[in-house]
Design goal:
Layout lengths: L1 H31 L6 H15 L4 H24 L7 H23 L4 E2 L8 E4 L2 E4 H23 L1 H11 L1 H6 L4 H26 L2 E2 L5 H14 L4 H20 L7 H15 L14
Antiparallel strand pairs: 1-4, 2-3
Helix pairs in contact: 1-5, 1-8, 1-9, 1-10, 2-3, 2-4, 2-8, 2-9, 3-8, 5-6, 5-8, 6-8, 9-10, 9-11, 10-11
């Protein structure tokens, strides 16, 4: 029972990281109707920013990572995606993949391909809950990710900007007629998604303090999988999908017979969900205007 509870907590913690990354995917898709496959590499950008500024202070390094990732996210939207607005989805998809490789190549040129170790904080003690011992980074990740997701939900539901995001996601043309600046809303969406990616990078480094130019590639793919499982375009769906995927991965790794095939298990779940419910668990069917 203690092992089950410990594995569940670890799964929720990992799922919180996936959910934060998935929120960036799903918000951009829901509002701009595009898949930003460079989103995972924003995590890597945040990780290297922390690496550069960690000598000052961990708090300063984390703040710098969030700010720099937001700036990079806005620049990517302005320079790469905005000129393609109204273009075919294939053109946008190819551009997103190109931006992803561009960021990875820049990182390799600047920092090399060797692994860099980024130790944000050292926690020697563990939290003892009865017979269960839990790592402090796991608790921090779980609590912070829950707080971030709750704050984002409140922001989208109750703030003026959040309601504008919902309006743009429903109908860009109608939102524009109501006086909403669609370009500004899309830019804000990229900024929020990039900030969430930077935070996800922080929590990933707390668990495993090593970074390479492809640091964000696999978490990005798995977070995209989580977004699709939950229902791409749905914020609650991204949260549910992320948490579910984190739990599945952790429990698969805990079973010796399944651990070598953990990735296969996760992507098999994706296929099964899409076969049963193509819109994802919480996704909704949308009528496309012709």
């Amino acid at each position: 029972m203690e092992t089950f509870f410990s594995t569940l907590i670890n799964g929720l913690s990992l799922g919180g990281i996936y959910a934060m990354i998935a929120l960036g995917y799903t918000m951009v898709y829901g509002i701009a109707k595009m898949l930003n496959f460079a989103h995972g590499d924003i995590i890597m950008v945040g990780g290297y920013t922390i690496f550069l500024f960690l000598f000052i202070n961990p708090i300063v390094a984390i703040a710098a990572a969030i700010v720099f990732c937001v700036v990079i996210g806005i620049l990517i939207e302005k320079l790469a995606y905005k000129p393609l607005r109204g273009s075919s989805p294939l053109a946008v998809l190819i551009t997103a993949i190109g931006v992803s490789y561009l960021l990875q190549s820049f990182a390799q040129i600047l920092f090399g391909s060797a692994t860099k170790f980024v130790e944000i904080a050292t926690f020697e003690k563990k939290l003892q809950l009865g017979a269960v011992s839990i790592d402090i980074p796991t608790i921090i990740t779980l609590v912070c990710s829950a707080a971030v997701m709750a704050a984002l939900s409140i922001f989208v539901k109750y703030s003026k900007t959040g309601r504008a995001m919902i309006a743009v996601s429903e109908d860009k043309g109608a939102a524009q007629l109501m006086g909403i600046n669609v370009n500004t809303i899309i830019m804000i969406t990229f900024a929020i998604g990039s900030a969430l990616a930077a935070l996800a990078g922080v929590f990933t480094l707390l668990k495993s303090p090593a970074i390479t130019p492809t640091f964000g590639a696999m978490p990005g793919i798995k977070a995209f999988t989580a977004a699709v499982i939950g229902g791409i375009g749905s914020i609650p769906g991204a949260m549910v999908g992320g948490l579910l995927l984190g739990i599945i991965e952790t429990f698969s790794n805990a079973v010796p017979a399944l651990s070598p095939y953990t990735d296969a298990v996760e992507f098999s779940i994706l296929i099964i969900v899409l076969l049963v419910k193509p819109t994802g668990l919480l996704g909704k069917k949308r009528r496309e205007k012709v």
